[in-house]
Design goal:
Length: 284
Amino acid sequence: MDSDLFSRRRAERFAQLLDEANGGRRHHVRSRADGELTALVEVSRRLTADRPDVDVDAEFRTGLRAMLVATAEREGVGAPAKTATGVRGALLPAITGRRARARGAILVGVAAGAIALSGISAASENALPGDALYGMKRSTERAQLALASSDIGRGQLFLDFARTRLDEASSVRDDRLGFSAVLDDMDADTRQGVRLLTTVAAQRSDPTALDAVDTFLAGQRQVVSGLLDRPDHADRERTRRSLALLDAAGKRTGALREAIACGLPAPQASDTLGPAPAACPADR
């Protein structure tokens, strides 16, 4: 089936379901996508009904408006129908009108949802594991990664998220499983960030990307070391594993700096921390 036609039909059906949810007339049609689309309509309804009491940044509103205007222009929402002759010409205005309403409904839904989500995202910034908004906090982080324009940007974001996980771990009390789970996530973010930035440095033979890693490691190690005073032995052992990871990352950036300085080619071997360089020859 033509994917463009399929997408238009889904959009038109979504517009119908949105219209029905807002008190409009019922459409006596069904589609195989109704289950998925109904779930999206319910999300839209909840976001609209349960908007958090958070001010939306004016810059966000301006950017959102520009995006919606550009999308409307690209999709032809509000544009007059092209003239045509015969039966096709008689049907075209009605079809175009339905498509315009469908696209318009989706734009309105996107706008309302984005504004509501921006407020929820702001409200979730200080959420901790177990809080109602913690899932939204993590979803916002994944969205940031998806929007990052380069591996350097993604790498720095992962390191920022590792710092956030460390702040959360410091706040988790009397919950051994929760503490360990947060440190697991922190270590995973650390590996991802280090791997992306060391890979960029090796590929470009430029140690600049390693500066962000070394700055992260210095601050992170100091705070992680402070978790060694927790009374639970298992917590202290788990903390030592995170410290060992930071030490390994520091050794990796040091080895890469040396390899770049002595002109070695980009390493072929790699692991969870990125390229694993060989030692420089002793005669260099």
